[in-house]
Amino acid sequence: MIIGILALQGDFAEHKEILDELKVQSIFVTTKEELEKIDGLIIPGGESTTIGKLLKETGLGKKIILKAKKGLPVFGTCAGAIVLAKKIAGKKEFSLNLLDIAIERNAFGRQNDSFDEKIKTSFGILSVSFIRAPKIKSLGKKVEVLAKRKKEPVIVRQGKILAATCHPEIYSDTKLHEFFLEMIKK
Ligand code: GLN
């Protein structure tokens, strides 16, 4: 199994460290050819406007949509979750529209309002960071909630698409990545 990590912008290196720890082969993806080699894709945190712009300009976005519709599992953290969402509140931005949620960017305030937390998930306690994190404002019927914080969904899944509004990779907590790997195997 080879996992691709979208490496246009953001904290792709941290995701690689987690996969290395789990002894899973991974490659950084910046071209369409690299997308052909992978069994699952991670879209990291960073700046969703930049990632979205580059996805559009490089044509990688279109290709990811096609591959995901054919069953490629995709996992987005924070900005990655924003890029996956059907609807981004506010300005019109590029999105892959693969996950039936509406999401609001920077919903906790500024950088200073970032925080770390342990959250209860369907697969155990997960240590995560919320860094200028978004909030999921609404969910489609097919979207399953895997973790909540203060009654609000923070990790969700729709079929082979997984998204977290927080970062487990910063704390080197491997559980969510392991969950994604299991999703790929099934
Ligand atoms: N605030 C960023 C955005 O809106 C996301 C931050 C992150 O990925 N940690 O794109």
Describe this structure in words.
- The chain has 186 residues and is an alpha/beta fold.
- The chain contains six helices and twelve strands.
- The chain is globular.
- The protein has one domain (2-185): Rossmann fold.
- The structure holds glutamine (GLN).
- Glutamine binds at residues 45-48, 78-79, 82, 105-106, 131-132.
Structure summary:
By secondary structure, the protein is α/β, with parallel strands linked by helices. The chain has 6 helices and 12 strands. The protein starts with a strand and ends with a helix.
Features:
186 residues; alpha/beta; Rossmann fold; 7-stranded mixed beta sheet; 3-stranded mixed beta sheet; 28% helix; globular; binds glutamine
CATH topology: Rossmann fold
Number of folding domains? 1
How many strand segments?
12
Number of helices: 6
H/E series: EHEHEHHEHEEEEEEEEH
Please outline the helices and strands:
Blueprint: E1 2-6, H1 12-21, E2 25-29, H2 32-35, E3 40-43, H3 48-58, H4 60-69, E4 74-77, H5 79-84, E5 85-88, E6 99-104, E7 115-121, E8 124-130, E9 135-139, E10 144-149, E11 152-158, E12 161-164, H6 175-185
Parallel strand pairs: 1-2, 1-3, 3-4, 4-12, 5-6
Antiparallel strand pairs: 6-9, 7-8, 10-11, 11-12
This protein binds glutamine.
